From TrEMBL:
InterPro entries: CoaB-like_sf, CoaBC, DNA/pantothenate-metab_flavo_C, Flavin_trans-like, Flavoprotein. Residues 6-178 form the Flavoprotein domain. The lineage of its organism: Bacteria, Pseudomonadati, Bacteroidota, Flavobacteriia, Flavobacteriales. It comes from the Bacteria. This is Coenzyme A biosynthesis bifunctional protein CoaBC. Pathway: Cofactor biosynthesis; coenzyme A biosynthesis; CoA from (R)-pantothenate: step 2/5; Cofactor biosynthesis; coenzyme A biosynthesis; CoA from (R)-pantothenate: step 3/5.
Amino acid sequence: MSVSGKKILIAVSGGIAAYKIHFLIRDFIKKGAEVQVVMTPDAEHFVTKLSLSTLSKKPVYTDFYNENGSWNSHVELGLWADAMVVAPCTANTLAKMTHGMCDNLVLATYMSAKCPVFIAPAMDLDMYDHPTTRQNLDLAEDFGHIIIPAESGELASGLIGQGRMAEPETISKTVEDFFDNQGQKNTLVGKTVLITAGPTYEAIDPVRFIGNHSSGKMGFSLAEEAAKRGARVILVSGPSAQIAHHKNIELHQVTSAKEMLDKVFEFYENTDVAIASAAVADYAPMEIAKEKIKKNDENLTIELVKNPDILKTMGEQKTHQFLVGFALETQNEEENAKGKLQKKNLDMIVLNSLRDAGAGFKNDTNKIRIFTKTERKEFELKSKDDVAKDILNFVEHQLLK
């Protein structure tokens, strides 16, 4: 594990999301990390020192002095850590961190830390969207801290929107990825990578559409990995619940194939590498009903017309771009993939077969084969994050030829 043997300092501030920290501690401990917890006094309203110390196997500190009068050295705590994770980070704690206020043990420890700092904000949606919060998050990033963005969903207030602390798995993975990538050469610095992801939805009427089961996971994994390697990433995604975390990713959300085509060609001319992983609908209704179609007849006939072939158009207009396509097949897989490679003027194609268990839509895993005009390489079933690494490693190898 990439955090095995690492010393993780978790700083908990006073928000309802503090209950999730139990899961984060347990995850780090399982992966071999050593965990020390410090808390603001207000955090004790939400979680107990006893539960956190039981999981971390260390005393939990909330004040500069213990009951027996001994000193909890914020300097030693700050210098001890390989990484500091502030989670949940409330608007109040964030503001104090970015403006040099130091009125509790957590803040004193933060100001003594020499290690990377990860911030997982959590607050109500209006607070998260407030200009001061946005400015403070930007300041924290300017300090070199790593922001783990809040997620959207139902909040403690009952409102629905962005402000929920990222899930413990997301926080843990962000820290792991950081240590995984330490010392990694930024192989895509200076490159612009354009990636399409997710499905497209083609409207039938105001409430219905034609779509597919693509989740966008593969495209978002590719975007995250390319961004970690230093690329500027343009991610054009159809409807997807996935979240782009890395600051190098510019996310552009679209719905239909025509919208995706238009957005892709806003950036294609200045792209170095283009990876078309989106599952674009081949057909769309000829006419979109202006009102909801009523269920009056036993049968309903919808006339479909071909959508623009985005990948083929990219191949036709290719000048200097390295163009990667995807093929999802159910029969004659290799033959069909190689045909697509040729017909669409691709430099490389990634083949998934729905006949391979664990591959295809919605899964967290994928099994791929990669083809160029002269090469073929097959990979084992892996997580989509690891598949993204394999694909980009292959792309980089081709660029060096």
